[in-house]
Amino acid sequence: MNDSRQPQHRWDPARGRTSVPAASVDSAPPNAGVRGSVRLLGLEPDLAAGLSEEERASAAHLVVGALYAAPGHWSPPEALFDAMGMLVVGGQVIRIGRTFARRDIQLLGPGDVAECRVIGDSDGEWRALGWAQLAVLDERFVLAARRWPALMTGLAHRLFEAQQEQHTRAAICAMPRVEERILALLCHLAGRWGQVTPEGVTLTLPVTHEVLGALIGARRPTVSLALLSLGEQQLLRRREDRTWLLPMESVEWPTTGVPDGRRGLAA
């Protein structure tokens, strides 16, 4: 029997191993929507990777602002506009904007950073996919970084990872078949936020077919057909709790290749 007190693990195909996932928010937290505080390095210890043991012990007490975003439309509070940025520590949020007169969607989940200019852009619309917890990189983080400059190095690594994330998403959108795009996106996100189960890897990503299509550059009807095809091939399943289940065959296909003979749909 599994011990529910033990941390669940996520599949990391890039490293070929499992790691403990970032914090998640499964239900309405107390004082939802009200600003509070959180010990930043307790949730994101990688930010202190460059600190000595003595420095990490002192920096462990670093407290920054925190808030919860309720499911659905979310209006970032003005206090965020003056901050360096925000760090998603639980749940997922999307930002809907426009590029070249076309709608585009940015997905942020545990470990992702958004800087204040993006947050304060009035042309963008924010939505939370379920409850989300956000840490505010406010003046307290800036003061701490002056004392421990390696914190800024840790933050810079996150921003570099965000650049690689954009490259990965662009490569996914360039795939010729919609089934491949969907499977590649969900496998990639499962590598970041998924959890290993006896059936495969589960991923919490409560999005509609339309939003999923926007994330991969495809129309909603085509996405619906592609999901049906993937389900018939037993490469992907949407469970009753609305999480996605990826069998290990699906999780490993980016490196092993999709089996021959499977016809795909154009966007």
Describe the model.
It is a single chain. The protein has helices at residues 40-43, 53-59, 116-119, 139-147, 150-173, 178-193, 209-216, 220-232, 248-256, and strands at residues 10-12, 17-19, 36-39, 63-69, 72-74, 85-90, 93-99, 102-108, 113-115, 125-128, 132-137, 195-197, 200-203, 237-238, 244-246. The chain has 267 residues and is α+β, with helices and mostly antiparallel strands. It folds into two domains: 14-171, Jelly Rolls, CATH 2.60.120.10; 177-256, Arc Repressor Mutant, subunit A. The strands form four sheets. It has a five-stranded antiparallel beta sheet. Strands 5-10-7-8 form a four-stranded antiparallel beta sheet. It has a four-stranded antiparallel beta sheet with strand order 12-13-15-14. The longest helix is centred in the middle third of the chain and has 24 residues, at 150-173. The chain is globular, with a radius of gyration of 19 Å.
Task: Explain briefly what this protein structure is.
This protein is α+β, with helices and mostly antiparallel strands.
CATH H-level homologous superfamily name of the largest domain: Jelly Rolls
Overall pLDDT, averaged? 83
- CATH topology group of the largest domain: Jelly Rolls
SSE sequence, one letter per element: EEEHHEEEEEEHEEHHHEEHHEEH
Describe the sheet with the most strands: 5 strands, antiparallel
Give the C-level CATH assignment of the largest domain. Mainly Beta
Shape: globular
Number of helices: 9
